[in-house]
Design a protein that fits this description.
With about 70 residues, this protein is mainly α. It has a domain of about 30 residues. The chain is about 75% helix and about 0% strand. It has 3 helices and no strands. Helix 1 packs across helix 3. It is elongated. The two termini are about 20 Å apart. This is DUF2842 domain-containing protein. It comes from Mesobaculum littorinae. Keywords: Membrane, Transmembrane, Transmembrane helix.
């Protein structure tokens, strides 16, 4: 079932306003358990997690951007 433009927009706002802050909190908490890794390792973890959150929602955000 395809989502209409209005539904896509609503889901995108929900993801950005509710789910993204929760994801950020979880990511920071998990990295906090690593006992202060070296700065470059920590940076790499945040970059990977920053890209991974968006992959499942790629099609949704492409539809909203048009």
């Amino acid at each position: 079932m395809a989502l209409g433009p209005k539904a896509r927009r609503r889901w995108a706002i929900f993801i950005l306003v509710v789910l993204l802050p929760v994801y950020i909190f979880v990511a920071v908490t998990l990295v906090g358990f690593l006992d202060r890794p070296p700065v470059l390792v920590e940076l790499a973890i945040y970059v990977v997690l920053g890209v991974l959150w968006a992959l499942p929602f790629k099609r949704l955000f492409l539809g909203v951007g048009r």
